[in-house]
């Protein structure tokens, strides 16, 4: 699975794939070649997941009548 | 002398009770009033309250056996029509209305309409489980349909931010009560659905009377929710309030806070989980490297001493490749720091046969590519090959000097 393919995965897909890889490494005792491959893939998946979690910033916008977006400021109640 | 009849208290009350019970009007009476002093007696499930108007009050009791069919929760100040019979509670000497049923006054028709619409949409399959869409695991963009002021939006946003700070919210402000509300809600839902990048739409408002919640019982609203491609979470009113929107939505949350909890995972937990997985990967690779270090050691030794040249060359290449991968992966993927890494690297370097030979070692093979390991196998004039790390030289033995190294 290439870096590009991973970058297109949803969080759930990536998490599921990660679990499969770890299970494989634990269960099947793969060769060194395979282990390295799994490792690289696994690390890429965790990087991707973390990115998905942290890249977006918390932002609340309000859609106006004319379709325009403005930042929404919460009204503090007295 | 006229005899005076004297009654005991019990007899008097009993007499009165009989009078009431024999009155046809009092035995099936509808009374309109406002609920006050409402008390739900928890262990028994009986309800006690008074009905009042401007000038008067009447005590009411609504037993569990009758009130368990009740579709709404009576509340303080609610204007209701209560039907029942009036009788006397002999123990305390007061009369009260024994309620058979109550319905909210004025919105009784609405309530009936609600039940009717609910039944109709249910028959048409709008509430069926197979039409429910799953919620996204990690929402990136949430569409929010609610009033921009009030407790609902505040509760929702506060909880959302606490659990999962990395999410975008698009608020589509609408009236959540009144005549304008249904059309505005429909418009908002349609527009958000059309955007195509909204992962989930939340439709919410705080608690209110059945009348206030009515826009969420609108058939048009229900049908739009049903037809939307985006999953919808409905969180209208309090925990005990159910609206048509709740039934048709993909998920119903009891409150705005519950909706945020339903939609957004706890970010901290997810990051912790990832950390654990990463650690497992690393430690598994480390143990695999340790195993392979032993294999590599054996391979290089045997290749060097016992195998003919082809195999030796292959061995070199293989050893070299594996070694390079090990170092590269250690350096760039594991990012092990400091002494741990350099230690490992040094050990690996020392094991590389090419490395050993590049320090000035060579070996000798005869014409059959057999390794000559002893001076005793050599004859003068013999053709031999001297193999270096980067090539070999065809040579002829000129002179044999046994044990010359040892003599020094």
Determine Rg of chain A (CA atoms, Å). 20 Å
Number of strands of chain A: 2
SS content category of chain B: alpha/beta
The arrangement of helices and strands of chain B along the chain is HHEEEHEEHEHEHEHEHEHHHHHEEEEH
Largest interface: A-B, 37 and 38 residues
What is the percent of helical residues of chain B?
40-55%
Main pleated sheet of chain B = 5 strands, mixed, barrel
Please report which band the strand proportion of chain B falls in: under 5%, 5-15%, 15-25%, 25-35%, 35-45% or over 45%: 15-25%
Round the Cα radius of gyration of chain B to an integer and report it. 44 Å
- Give the helix/strand class of chain A: mainly alpha
H/E series of chain A, N to C? HHHEE
How many domains of chain A?
1
| CATH architectural type of chain A | Orthogonal Bundle
- Count every beta strand of chain B, where a strand is a DSSP E run of 2 or more residues: 14
Provide the spatial order of strands within the biggest beta sheet of chain B.
1-2-3-5-4
Parts with pLDDT < 50 across at least 5 consecutive residues of chain B: none
Shape of chain B: elongated
Count the helices of chain B. How many?
Answer: 14
* Approximate helicity band of chain A: 55-70%
Summarize this structure as a short list of keywords or feature phrases.
heterodimer, A: 78 residues, mainly alpha, Helix Hairpins, two-stranded antiparallel sheet, 3 helices, rod-shaped, B: 408 residues, alpha/beta, 5-stranded mixed β-barrel, 5-stranded parallel β-sheet, 14 helices, 14 strands, 22% strand
Describe this structure in words.
- The complex is a heterodimer of chains A (78) and B (408).
- Chain A has three helices and two strands.
- Chain A is mainly alpha-helical and 78 residues long.
- Chain A has a single domain (3-66), classed as Orthogonal Bundle (Helix Hairpins).
- A two-stranded antiparallel sheet of chain A has the order 1-2.
- In chain A, helix 2 packs antiparallel against helix 3.
- The radius of gyration of chain A is 20 Å and the shape is rod-shaped.
- Chain B has helices at residues 9-21, 24-27, 64-67, 108-123, 151-163, 181-195, 219-227, 244-248, 256-263, 267-306, 309-334, 338-351, 353-358, 404-407; strands spanning 29-40, 47-52, 57-62, 79-89, 94-104, 141-146, 168-173, 200-205, 232-236, 251-252, 363-365, 371-372, 383-388, 391-396.
- The longest helix of chain B has 40 residues, at 267-306.
- With 408 residues, chain B is an alpha/beta fold.
- Chain B contains 14 helices and 14 strands.
- In chain B, strand 9, helix 8 (244-248) and strand 10 form a beta-alpha-beta unit.
- In chain B, strands 1-2-3-5-4 form a five-stranded mixed beta barrel.
- Chain B starts with 8 loop residues before the first helix and ends with a helix.
- Classes of the chains: A mainly alpha (78), B alpha/beta (408).
- Chain A binds chain B through residues 10-12, 18-19, 21-22, 25-26, 32, 35-36, 38-40, 42-43, 46, 49-50, 52-63, 69, 72, 74-75, 77, and chain B through 137-138, 140, 148-149, 153-154, 157, 161, 165-173, 191, 267, 270-271, 274, 277-278, 280-282, 284-285, 288-289, 292, 295, 322, 325, 329, 333.
């Amino acid at each position: 699975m290439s870096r590009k393919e991973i970058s297109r995965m949803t969080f759930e897909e990536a998490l599921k794939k990660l679990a499969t890889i770890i299970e494989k490494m634990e269960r099947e005792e793969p060769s060194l070649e395979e282990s390295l491959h799994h490792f690289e893939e696994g690390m890429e998946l965790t990087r991707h997941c973390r990115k998905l979690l942290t890249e977006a910033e918390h932002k609340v916008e309000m859609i106006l009548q004319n379709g325009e977006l403005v930042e929404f400021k919460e009204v503090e109640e007295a | 002398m006229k005899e005076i009849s004297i009654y005991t208290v019990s007899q008097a009350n009993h007499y009165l009770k009989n009078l009431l019970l024999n009155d046809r009007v009092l035995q099936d009476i509808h009374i309109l009033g406002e609920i006050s002093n409402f008390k739900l007696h928890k262990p028994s499930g009986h309800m006690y309250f008074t009905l009042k108007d401007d000038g008067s009050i009447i005590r009411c009791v609504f037993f569990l056996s009758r009130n368990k069919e009740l579709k709404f929760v009576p509340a303080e100040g609610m204007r209701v029509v209560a039907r029942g019979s009036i009788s006397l509670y002999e123990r305390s000497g007061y009369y009260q209305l024994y309620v058979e049923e109550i319905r909210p006054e004025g919105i009784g028709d609405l309530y009936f309409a609600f039940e009717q619409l609910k039944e109709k949409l249910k028959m048409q399959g709008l509430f069926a489980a197979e039409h429910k869409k799953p919620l996204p695991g990690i929402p990136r963009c949430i569409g929010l349909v609610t009033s921009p002021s009030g407790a609902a939006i505040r509760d929702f946003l506060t909880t959302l931010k606490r659990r999962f700070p990395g999410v975008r919210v698009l608020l589509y402000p609408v009236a959540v009560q009144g005549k304008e509300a249904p059309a505005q809600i429909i418009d908002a839902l349609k527009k958000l659905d059309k955007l195509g990048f909204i992962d989930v739409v939340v439709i919410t408002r705080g608690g209110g009377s059945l009348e206030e919640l009515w826009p969420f019982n609108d058939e048009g609203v229900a049908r739009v929710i049903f037809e939307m491609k985006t999953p919808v979470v409905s969180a209208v009113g309090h925990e005990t309030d159910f609206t048509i929107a709740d039934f048709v939505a993909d998920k119903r949350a009891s409150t705005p806070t519950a909706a945020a909890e339903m939609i957004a995972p706890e970010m901290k937990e997810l990051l912790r989980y990832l950390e654990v997985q990463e650690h497992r990967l690393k430690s598994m690779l480390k143990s695999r490297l340790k195993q392979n270090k032993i294999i590599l050691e054996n391979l290089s030794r045997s290749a060097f001493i016992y195998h003919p040249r082809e195999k030796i060359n292959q061995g070199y290449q293989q050893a070299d490749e594996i070694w390079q991968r090990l170092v590269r992966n250690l350096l760039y993927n594991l990012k092990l720091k400091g002494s741990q890494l350099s230690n490992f690297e040094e050990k690996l370097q020392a094991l590389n046969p090419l490395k050993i030979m590049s320090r000035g070692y060579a070996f000798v093979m005869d014409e059959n590519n057999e390794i000559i390991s002893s001076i005793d196998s050599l004859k003068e004039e013999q053709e031999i090959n001297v193999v270096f790390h980067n090539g070999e030289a065809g040579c002829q033995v000129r002179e044999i000097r046994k044990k010359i190294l040892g003599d020094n």
